[in-house]
Amino acid sequence: MKCRAFMCMAAAGVVTTFAEPSYASEVRMDIYKDPSCGHCGAWAAAMVDADFNVVVHSEEFIVIKTRLGIPENMHGCHTAVVGDYFFEGHVPLEAVERVLKEKPQIAGLAVPGTAECSLAAEDDSPVYEVFSLSKPDMRPSLYMRIDGR
Questions:
Q1: CA 9/CA 16 separation, integer angstroms
Q2: Of the candidates 38, 111, 105, which has an alpha carbon nearest to the alpha carbon of residue 70?
Q3: Helix (H) or strand (E) holding 3
Q4: Distance between CA 90 and CA 80 in Å, rounded?
């Protein structure tokens, strides 16, 4: 009987070790935003709706950009951090999920400036570009082009 119990516990341990998290809300997303930006709140709400565990910080939003080494020409109105990646500005959910799934060797993604209505590619939003920033030199390259028209 002891052998059988041991085998069951060992099997349960293996399943637990290799199981994927069942809820995305286990994935923490820290968002550092300008307290005066109204668009950032909508973007954060969209990330909550996508089941991220969002923690919003209204202080240090410039400090985090500097600490992460994000070039000024790539700055957006907020910075989100998930694990080893940052998402600068209104990066669409589709791009965030793609990076977290594929785990490319980049520092993060950026949509410079403030891209209004950029929460989903199917919106009536204008054309805008999402850039990936390489490690360690933060050189931008086109990652995705969004045409919401």
A1: 10
A2: 111
A3: helix 2-18
A4: 9
Give the span between the Cα atoms of 43 and 65, in whole angstroms. 18
At 67-89, the pLDDT tens digits run 999 999 999 989 999 999 999 99
pLDDT at 111: 93
Task: Give how far the C-alpha of residue 97 lies from the chain's centroid of Cα atoms, to the nearest Å.
Answer: 7
For position 147, what pLDDT does the model report? 77
Q: What is the DSSP string of 24-90?
A: GGGSEEEEEE-TT-HHHHHHHHHHHHTT-EEEEE-S-HHHHHHHHT--GGG-BSEEEEETTEEEESS
By C-alpha distance, which of 60, 29, 64 is closest to 45? 29
Give the containing element (helix H, strand E) for 95.
helix 93-102
